[in-house]
Design goal:
With 163 residues, the protein is of the alpha/beta class. It is built from eight helices and seven strands. Helix content is 43%, strand content 23%.
Length: 163
């Protein structure tokens, strides 16, 4: 099983490739059609010096786009959800449930309807499985030297991608 770092292009690219080859995942999400964007709030202690956005665009279970995006692209999505990296980590590692954190206000809806998000919520575990088919390393798990390398890497790909 491969390992990737959270909030990197490599993580999302690998997840997208693996999803495309997983007919069972597509079958589970065949009723999902939604363009969702996620804002990971800045957390300098995690090497995330400014907010970063990524998206998951589904059409009848087909994952058309899963990548880091600009703030403008995220704001044009049907739904925009925001949370701290700690909250996203808790959801991605299944230590907490998306719907619970959403209802408690830990995950904020910045664009779209609450009713719409609640209609997507039953698909949350399958979406999470699509985002985490590999070992995912989070910045708070890194030693100081590796965290600095993570921060430098993030600055580099963000500048290159314009995100």
């Amino acid at each position: 099983m491969t390992t990737h770092y959270y909030c990197t292009p490599e993580w999302l690219k690998e997840s997208h490739v693996l999803y495309q080859s997983n007919s069972e995942a597509k079958k589970k999400l065949k009723k999902l059609s939604a363009n969702m964007a996620y804002r990971v709030k800045s957390e300098p202690a995690w090497g995330i010096d400014k907010d970063i956005y990524f998206c998951a665009f589904f059409d009848a279970g087909e994952l058309n786009k899963l990548e880091l995006v600009s703030k403008e692209t995220a704001e044009n999505a049907q739904y925009l959800l925001a949370a701290t990296p700690q909250t996203w980590k808790s959801v991605l590692t299944k230590k907490s449930k998306f719907i619970t954190d959403f209802m408690l206000g830990k995950i904020k809806l910045e664009k779209g309807s609450k009713v719409g998000v609640l209609s997507i919520a039953p698909h949350a575990n399958n979406i999470l499985d699509a985002l985490t088919p590999m070992n995912l390393v989070f910045p708070d798990e890194l030693p100081a030297q590796d965290l600095e390398q993570y921060r430098t890497n993030m600055e580099g790909f963000r500048a290159e991608l314009g995100v």
